[in-house]
Amino acid sequence: MNAQDVVRQAREANLRLVRFLYCDNGGIIRGKATHASKLHTRLHEGIGQTLAMQAFTGVETLATVEGMGPIGEFRLIPDPNTFVVLPYAPGSGSMMCDMILQDGTAWEACPRTFLKRMVARLAEHGMRAEAAIEHEFFLAREEQGHYIPADHSLCYSSIGLDEQAEVIDAILESLEAQGVSIELFHTELGPAQQELSLHHADGLRAADNVCLVRETVRSVARTFDLLASFAPKPFLDQAGSGAHIHASLWGSSGSEQAGKNLFYDSTQRGGLSQLGRSFIGGVLRHIRALVAITCGSPNSYHRLLPHYWSSAYEGYGFDNREGAIRVPSLFWGREADSINLEFKPSDHSGNPYLALGALLAAGLNGIEHNIDPGEPQEIDPGNYSDEERAKRGIRRLPTSLDEALDELEHDEVLQQALGPLLATSYVAVKRNEAAFFKEKTPEEEARQHFYKY
Question: Considering 62, 223, 269, 430, which has the largest number of Cβ atoms within 10 A of its Cβ?
Answer without folding.
Answer: 430
